[in-house]
Design goal:
Shape: elongated
Order of helices and strands: EEEHHHHHH
Strand order of the largest sheet: 1-2-3
Distance between the termini: 51 Å
Structural class: alpha+beta
Number of strands: 3
Radius of gyration: 23 Å
Largest sheet: 3 strands, antiparallel
Length: about 160
């Protein structure tokens, strides 16, 4: 969904000389993203266009961050993330982001968030993980996945035991 078009929809001078500007950014799916701001009196058209162009990179970054947040949330809730269309991020970027997220969740001891992480890791071989993250990482990630699997089983057993009380 990168931004493929951008334009200024309206530019209105206010009584005090400030200029109300309405920008529109169109992503590759045709969705419009709007931005409104007030520019100081006397700002040139060139400066306004430069602001518009500079905002494209910011919009693209926001779309990428949004896609990564949705990706991680799907993992946390046990929803499929394999084979879906990702417009903003590469598989390597998502893998790195996932591992950083999972590492942080482990540090925070948020084991509930990690209970489905193993399902994602199981989709990849050690060799594939090595290619994505670097030589030797596949074995480490797979070993970690086994610990996550044990944790998930222990959590499920705990829920069953609690129900029997």
């Amino acid at each position: 969904m990168p931004i493929i078009n951008q334009y200024i929809k309206s530019k209105r001078v206010q009584r005090n000389g400030q200029i109300k500007i309405h920008e529109v950014f169109v992503d590759s799916l045709g969705k419009e993203h709007r931005h409104f701001y007030v520019a100081p009196p006397g700002i040139s058209d060139i400066a306004i266009k430069n602001r518009l162009m500079n905002r494209v990179a910011h919009r693209n970054d926001r779309l990428k961050e949004q896609e990564l947040r949705q990706y991680l949330k799907r993992i946390e809730y046990g929803k499929n993330v394999i084979g879906l269309d990702y417009e903003e991020t590469t598989q390597a970027e998502r893998a790195v982001e996932f591992l950083n997220w999972a590492k942080q969740k482990a540090i925070e001891q948020d084991h509930q968030a990690l209970r489905y992480a193993v399902d994602l890791i199981d989709q990849f071989t050690k060799t594939q993980i090595d290619k994505l993250l670097g030589e030797g990482k596949g074995a480490k990630v797979k070993a970690w996945a086994e610990k996550l699997r044990e944790m998930k089983t222990a959590m499920e057993d705990s829920v069953i035991s609690a129900g029997e009380v």
